[in-house]
Design brief:
By secondary structure, the chain is of the alpha+beta class. It has a single domain, classed as Endonuclease I-creI (Roll). A four-stranded antiparallel sheet has the order 1-2-4-3. The radius of gyration is 13 Å and the shape is globular. The chain starts with a helix and ends in a 9-residue tail after the last helix.
Length: 100
Amino acid sequence: MGHYLAGLIEGDGFFSPKGELSIAFHRKDRIAMENLIQALDAGVLSDLKKEQTSKLRFNGKHLEKVIKLVNGKLVGTAKVSQLTDRCAEKFKIMVTAFND
């Protein structure tokens, strides 16, 4: 599950300065995202009105759960930096990058 989430985040995810994770995706993939929410028992789904895009958002304890799953699995330095700068201190997590 952690590798799958890391891939979604690397593809079109964003850790906001407010301590929220948003992952954008095409509406045709909505069922997959609903299944992900059910499997994680976390997340909120919303549609952008003028686009064929939906967003999956995590914050609070749900975000902490996702961070623990993806820690050590993010490859791109941009996402690791976002996670470190915007979430690590709040959740008292030492962020690690992917290391094979």
